[in-house]
Amino acid sequence: MSNEKVLTTRQGHPVQDNQSMRTVGERGPATLENYPFIEKITHFDRERIPERVVHARGTAAHGYFEAYGKIGNEPAEKYTRAKVLTNAGVKTPVFLRFSTVIGAKESPETARDPRGFAIKFYTEDGNWDLVGNNLKIFFIRDAIKFPDMIHAFKPDPLSNRQEPWRFFDFVAHHPESLHMVTWVKSPWGIPADYRHMQGSSVNTYKLVNDQGEAVLVKFSFEPKQGVKNLTSAQAAEIQGRDVGHATRDLYDAIERGDHPEWEMCVQIMSDDDHPELDFDPLDDTKRWPEDKFPLLPVGRLVLNQNPKNVFAETEQSAFGTGVLVDGIDFSDDKMLQGRTLSYSDTQRYRVGPNYLQLPVNAPKNGAQTNQRDGQMAYYVDNAGENPHVNYEPSMMGGLKEAPKKQHDYHPWVEGHLGRYQASRTQDDYKQAGERYRSFEDWERDDLIANLVADMKACPKPIALRMVWHFWHCDPDYGTRVAEGAGIDLEEAKKLPPLEGKPAPGARREAQVYTSNEPEEATPAMK
């Protein structure tokens, strides 16, 4: 008997003729009982799932994370009980997806855009997803603005083109975006490829140890290959011959055994609001100064295997900022809180309610839940001793709760419920100016050239306001953009501060409640 594999239908039936539909005679009509054809064509019609609204263009690889067992020179257990960070030498499997943010699935990888850096750690205690980007900060600090931001950055709903004026119309009203704009419009906005770029959690998390003590933490990944970026001219030259150059580079490097590697580092801060700083440490539009909060090595991340099927793994991989393991916890970062709802909700819509049953998303330590059924369910999670029992608690052999920690983390939380804006805003301009001055001359020149081209495409009110912003970040910054774009600098400088926003450099104090009458405690920020 031959061991040769034969083509079958998805029902397992051997296909004896894959060349012809079933018809009445050679030229006659097709019949309704054309099951192999119907199965084949209807599945083809459904080969694509909804494209990610953001981070649609991406590529990925498998690898591992190996913890050093230390955070800097201290035992990792001092800060966290997360085994993935404390167990030295253990190789935790990972899946890392790189992406661009705004463009569609087939958009060029030379786009000026932040790059996604999403990691799924398959730990012994279940999955840990760390979903960030390459630039360590973001455009906004409140998740309620995210749909507006993406709408402004996406193509115009009428012209279907990305218009600079839409981007800067949004940015002009959000000074906290200036820091990210300064990064993105410089060569750092176009990484040379995925192997030569940094990764970051962007958001602030907490590490929790066995005593139930917590510290604030940010995660960073520094490429052992070094950092390389492109100017606009270099990106245009590459795009002319290859719109998927970064995907090709990563795939080829892994295939030839040149496995890319990053060192995972953390920055740590005590868990309080740090009034001595000009910014809130939970503000994701700000970087923690590395001279005050140094990068402490934690472990290494290596990519050593390409996906066997891009759709099954890369496209159906699903990440969520709420997927944490014990020893890593949420901070009150408003963007993190909003993303935690949005990301997993997106996956349930895009891939389906049972997306965690797919091999690329399933935890390798197994899942045991009482959750059942739903679209595309194809197995039942291990239900304990008695498969009749899909509820808890039970005396009949159902699943039981895990043992509670001896010292859990119970922060005290109190305050007036309301809608607040950040009160520490000096660094909306300060950090953007520092970034501008930190660039090398060629990076500054590319930044200015990119912004000049954009300002020329913006209506005058938007261009004037952006020059006003750039000038308050750094006088040379604003002057060079104004001169290059033919904008009257003096007219721009005469603009008043944005309505409802403090003047640049002013520290707005948070409102203090003195009334004992709840109805008088209004949290509106002037």
From TrEMBL:
Active site: 55, 133
One GO MF term attached to the UniProt entry: catalase activity
Signal peptide: none
Region (Disordered): 1-26, 488-526
An example Gene Ontology biological process: response to hydrogen peroxide
CDD domains reported for this sequence: catalase_clade_1
Domain of life: Bacteria
Gene3D superfamilies hit by this protein: Catalase core domain (2.40.180.10)
Residues that hold heme according to the record: 343
Keywords: Heme, Hydrogen peroxide, Iron, Metal-binding, Oxidoreductase, Peroxidase
Claim: Transferase is one of the keywords in the record: no
Ranges annotated as biased composition (Polar residues): 1-22
Domain Catalase core span(s) in chain numbering: 8-400
Cofactor(s) needed: heme
One Pfam family recorded for the sequence: Catalase
Protein family (similarity comment): Belongs to the catalase family.
Protein name from the UniProt record: Catalase
